[in-house]
Amino acid sequence: MQEYITLFLYYLKDVKSASNNTVQSYARDLKYFINYLGQINSTDSIAFTDKDINAYLESMRNVGKSNATISRTLASIRAFCQYLIYQQVISENPAHIIALPKVDKKVPKVLTEDQITRLLDQPNINDIKGIRDRAMLELLYATGIRVSELIGLKITDINLQQGYIICRDSQKERTIPIGKSAVTALNQYLVQVRYVLLRDHTDKCLFVNCNGHGMTRQGFWKILKNYSKALNISEHITPHMLRHSFAAHLVQNGANLKSVQQMLGHSDISTTQVYRQLNKETEDLKDVYNKSHPRA
């Protein structure tokens, strides 16, 4: 079965133009699934049934996996089975008769504008590492791009004179404006730091780690974690929280959903509408507070 999974992952990347994150997610889900099948059946058989899939999903529930994780896993198995039908390996999709578990939409966690300001003020811009970190944080909040998109940026993807970046994902690209704070931070980084850190000066990566190579996902997570500790807030700050904060603050300050959708790269505007709902709930709470609190 592993051979078919490998071919399926190539199909996702080369034919369907799926992002690396998506391909890795499918690979991880299917790896765990075939490991489970190997435990209940010593042969590496493609002939698994809906009962096998149901039993696996139940085993996930028993170890406390969330409905969201189970739903994503079932979607991965469904897509793999559909590929097997396309390749005429099987004739029916055993995962289609299994209902997706109900997944409640989570309200995205966002930082306040004050918390964002405090976070962006954390890096010490008197040293090269702090200048680089400030530029990355400023750009992440200024554009709402994902951390994978941030570390994938090339020097040719930014235009500081016109104030925009070009973000590429899965052979698609979108142009996102950047404000003065991000432009200033990026300009300082490019003038004072990037060339100093970069080991191979033909490398086009925008952000460079202290070893002189392109910044990694894990490296940026560590950087954000260190700065987050100094804020002394209860929330565990993630790169995606900055993306949510970018969108929520835009909507809160009057941006239309269509524009926010385009900047975030959402294919469906219904995904973006959660920020309008989040803003409405915040305004409702403010209204109740202002009307009810004696010192409001």
- Quickly give the structural class: mainly alpha
Helix-strand topology string: HHHHHHHEEEHHHHHH
Q: What's the pLDDT, averaged over the residues?
A: 86
Oligomeric composition of the shown chains = single chain
State the CATH topology of the largest domain: hpI Integrase, Chain A
Q: So, the CATH homologous superfamily of the largest domain? A: Intergrase catalytic core
Counting DSSP E segments of at least 2 residues, the number of strands comes to: 3
Provide the helix percentage.
55-70%
Number of domains: 2
Order of neighbouring strands in the sheet with most strands: 1-2-3
Low-confidence stretches: none
CATH first level of the largest domain: Mainly Alpha
Can you describe what's shown?
- The structure is a single chain.
- With 296 residues, the chain is mainly α.
- It has two domains: 2-86, DNA polymerase, domain 1 (Orthogonal Bundle); 113-289, Intergrase catalytic core (hpI Integrase, Chain A, Orthogonal Bundle), CATH 1.10.443.10.
- The chain has helices at 2-14, 20-40, 50-62, 67-86, 113-120, 128-143, 147-152, 180-192, 194-197, 217-229, 239-252, 257-264, 269-292; strands at residues 158-159, 164-169, 172-177.
- The chain has a three-stranded antiparallel β-sheet with strand order 1-2-3.
- β2 and β3 (172-177) form a beta hairpin.
- The longest helix has 24 residues, at 269-292.
- The protein is globular.
- The termini are far apart.
